[in-house]
Amino acid sequence: MSRLDLADIQGNINRPYGRFGFPYSRHLFFVVHDAHAGRRFVQAIRPRITTAEPWDQSETADGHSIVKKPPITLNIGFTYAGLEALGLPTRTLRMLPDEFIDGMGRRAAILGDVGTSAPDQWEPAWRGEAQTAHVWVSLNAGAVRTGEALPELQQWTDWLIGLTAAGAVSLLAGHTADGVQQWQDSAALMLEQLNGDKLPCPKEHFGFTDGISDPVFQGQFAPEAEALAVIGGGKIAAGPYDETKSWSALETGEFILGHADEGQELPVTTEPQSFARNGSFVAWRKLREEVDVLEAYVAQAAKLWMRVQGTTDVEEAEETVRAKMVGRWRSGIPLLAAPTWADHQRLMAEYADCIAMSLRKPRDEHERLRLAQFDRLLTGFRYGDDLDGAKCPFGAHIRRGNPRDMLDPLIGATQGSSALTNRRRILRRGMPYVDPTGEKGVVFMAVCASLFRQFEFIQQQWISYGLDFEGGNDTCPLLGNRAQSDKHVVPAGEANPTAFIAAGLPQFVTTRGGDYFFLPSLTGIQMIAMGAIDPT
User: Fold this and answer.
1) What tens digit of pLDDT does each residue of 165-198 get?
2) For residue 437, what are the CA distances in angstroms to 16, 18, 429, 433?
């Protein structure tokens, strides 16, 4: 069991804050005009940074567990240009990864950011050399019962902006098409209760349950919690499958620098080595969702689905088309567990209590165990049970994003997730946004130790191409661009008697901007703030 120095690791690496009761997020980006003033700016922020240390937890007399978390969190990241602007030594800078040095805009061809997603189409904050973000500060806040963000969100925002009053550090605005918005907000969608209270729900604007599964790495959880979390979140050992024994945590170095990864290597080393240790990288992307376009396409494709499959239920057809594109029903239940609409309806009835239970806290021990059972339904599956894609199409979104055991060359003869898959996992963070202009989408963040080997590989090879999934030039039906192909194939099988081709797929998601950031450890942040990075 790896022991991590959680007090040295930033909290947004270990925790997806949205799942921990922080439904509001604000992203502020700053430009450093003077290295000395920039370091003072970092030093002023440093004491408020949220670490990965566990929050206090207690249990009430009736058996409910209560976690005493702060009302707001703060974390900080830096682009390569930002580290350069803060005066880091050349010997340290030159050892950072090439893709991080390039920045996201220069990697557009690799990422599939072409056409309307090309960098010259991005929002003003991300367009052009003059608009380079140096420092990213993210705030995540709780909510009051009526759904609004806690007042600390605006208080901390005002404090951050006040740190720029001297002018040597400035706020980078331009986070809408009109260039007006000063920062980027995102927030969980809210469900209104009968008493008027509002509760955050894990949905995005297309209606799918989001943030269901994330990789689990060594040292992230206590042993008891890890044993449950690795089912669906870890890696699968070769040999006969046993749900409680076949899953294990990934190596820490896949996500946190300075620790061995799945190849028993250190993916990034710097001079001094202590600067990179316990840090990570983040791909920050603003993705616009064309909700009306998706709804129109689903309605059109559902009519064809009914003719091809010989069904007459419109709701069933529309929901099935969505599920075949994504690999999950909008409830979050995977096609591997519920290949048909009837299967889905049966499981929804069986786990109806869990759907309601997941939206509220605190929970007693019985409720926690029941939710753990539901979580295993959502995440504890393998594609070795669906070798021909009859349940979940090969090109479905979740099958591309995490192929699990699908790419094991011995699949069918044995079970196991291949090194190809294990070395390309990412921690997914982010929440939906609605801009003042009415634009909707998701602020998406991928946390990993190697942007090239993990995030960029997934984006280029699995999302923007289809050969690994026997799909030729087909791209992800949800996220992919349509430059080379605009179809998604649903094979015939037990779930649908006739093969179906979803043709003429429009663009559902468009990149609006983003960049690559380094999340240093608290030690690294102190080195930056003090100007005391000595590579000798």
Assistant:
1) 999 999 999 999 888 899 999 999 999 888 888 9
2) 27, 24, 24, 11
Q: Are 203 and 189 in contact (CB under 8 A)?
A: yes
Enumerate residues 6+ apart whose C-beta is below 8 A from 14.
6, 52, 220
Structure token digits, residue 436? 């003042």
Residue 536: HSE in the Cβ half-sphere, 13 Å Cα cutoff? 1
Per-residue pLDDT tens digits for 349-390: 999 988 777 777 777 778 888 888 899 999 999 898 898 999
Kindly state the helix (H) or strand (E) to which residue 316 belongs, with its residue range. Answer: helix 314-326
What pLDDT digit, counting tens, does each position of 60-86 carry? Answer: 556 555 678 999 999 999 999 999 999
Alpha-carbon distance of 226 to 194, in angstroms, equals: 36
Name the amino acid, one letter, at 425: R
Phi then psi dihedrals of residue 7, to 5 deg: -70, -15
- Rounded Cα gap, residues 409 and 412, in angstroms: 9
Burial of 200 (0-12, 13-18, 19+ CB in 10 A): buried
pTM metric for this prediction: 0.95
21, 142 Cβ separation under 8 angstroms: yes
- Is pLDDT of 442 > 80? yes
Cβ atoms of 410 and 419 within 8 Å: the answer is: no
CB atoms within 10 A of CB 286: 25
Token pair 């170095």: residue: 253
Beta-carbon contacts of residue 253 (< 8 Å; ≥ 6 apart):
259, 260, 261, 262, 265, 266, 267, 449
Q: What does the angle CA 38 – CA 44 – CA 48 come to, to the nearest 5 degrees?
A: 130
- 44: alpha, beta or left? (left if phi > 0; alpha if psi -120 to 50): alpha
